[in-house]
Amino acid sequence: MIRHFICFANSKKRGGRCIAGIEVVFNKEKGNYSIITDEGRPRWIRPISNAEHGEVPTELVQKILLNNLVEVDVTEDGFGGYQSENVKFNLSSLKKVGNINVSEKVLDRYSENEEANIFGNVGKAVHPDKIPSLSRSIFLVKVDKPAIHKVTNQYNGKTTIQHRMKFNFKEHEYDFSLTDLNFIDKYEADNNILDSGTSFYLTISLGVLYMDWHAKLVAGVIMI
C-alpha cells in the first residue's frame, strides 16, 4: 500500500539509517496533504528493513532531507509495542516526491508538548522494565536553549567522538545523543549555527536495547 509522510528524522543507526516522519494523506478537495491523527496525535511512520536492527540502507535515504515529502510502499504494519510506528516496506519504493514548507505555526501543530517529561523520565535512557508501558518511540517536541557538545568514548579499544545535544523541556534539562547526520554536518561547518534560530523543534526517538538500556536520541533538528 502506498503511503506518504513528512520526513522529520533521517538519522544514523547501527548498519545504516533510521528514517521516520508524520503520515499524511492527499486531500482532493483542498488540493493539499492533511496530517493523519490517531486519538488527537499525529501518526508517525518508520520504515524498517529485515536487517538485524531494522536499519534502512544508507544509499536509499542519503538524499532525503527533513521536511521532504516521502513515498513508500508498505508491505506490513501493525507491529504494536513501543515501536508501534514501524512498518515493513518494498526497498525499491522509498523516494522523495516533494517538499513541505514549514513554519512555526505548522510545527506547533505537529509537536507534542503536553507530556511532563520525555518517555517517562528526565534521564538519558529508559530501562527495559519500563518499555511495556510505552506505546510509541518517536515524537516531535518544541524545546528551549539547545546546545551541542562533544564527548569522547572508549569502547573495545576504540575511541569515538559523539555529538550530544542539551536542551530544556518543561523546566528540565536533557542531554541526548545527536544522530541527525545532516545537522551534525551543518554544525561542523558553523559551530554557531544554533544562534541563527529562534524556535527549535526536535524529533526525539527511543533506540533499540543497547548495553541494557534504550537510549533517547535527537533524531532530527528543525530551526525556525
Task: Tell me about this structure.
The chain is mainly beta. It has 2 domains: 2-99; 104-223, OB fold (Dihydrolipoamide Acetyltransferase, E2P). The protein is built from 3 helices and 15 strands. It has helices spanning 58-61, 104-110, 181-189, and strands at residues 2-13, 16-27, 32-35, 37-38, 41-42, 44-48, 68-76, 86-89, 95-99, 125-126, 138-155, 158-169, 172-178, 200-210, 213-223. Strands 1-2-6-8-7 form a 5-stranded mixed β-barrel. Strands 11-12-13-15-14 form a 5-stranded mixed barrel. The model has no long low-confidence stretch (mean pLDDT 95).
Helices, strands, pairings?
Elements: E1 2-13, E2 16-27, E3 32-35, E4 37-38, E5 41-42, E6 44-48, H1 58-61, E7 68-76, E8 86-89, E9 95-99, H2 104-110, E10 125-126, E11 138-155, E12 158-169, E13 172-178, H3 181-189, E14 200-210, E15 213-223
